[in-house]
Write a structure and sequence with these properties.
It is built from three helices and two strands; from the N terminus they run ββααα. It is mainly alpha-helical and 102 residues long. The longest helix has 22 residues. It comes from Micromonospora radicis.
Length: 102
């Protein structure tokens, strides 16, 4: 039987990067608010961007795919948390992906 309904997508990647390097909390997202665990800034914060750029050195496509999955998760969390005051999709795209382009 052919149907036009698409299945509900599963969970995206786990936000485990960037990995911690030291005694402080890692610069990973605190869900469902998607702020940085270490400094409270919107994730990915400046330090997380720097660490992710170093970790994915030479693999910008892999970094973009990882961040796109996390952007989807952030959209899902933020719109469930507060559907009327969540960031616009363009703002989330800029926050998650535009900085990672070569």
């Amino acid at each position: 039987m052919i149907t036009t309904r698409l299945p509900t997508p599963g969970d995206g990647p786990a936000p485990e990067r960037p990995r911690a390097a030291g005694d402080g909390p890692p610069h990973t997202p605190l869900r469902p608010m998607w702020c940085c665990r270490a400094d409270g800034q919107p994730w990915p914060c400046a330090q997380a961007r720097l660490l992710l750029t170093v970790e994915y050195d030479g693999n910008r496509i892999g970094l973009s795919i990882y961040l796109a999955g996390l952007m989807y998760e952030a959209m899902r969390d933020l719109y469930r948390l507060n559907p009327y005051d969540a960031p616009a999709p363009a703002a989330l795209f800029a926050r998650f992906l535009t900085w990672a382009t070569p």
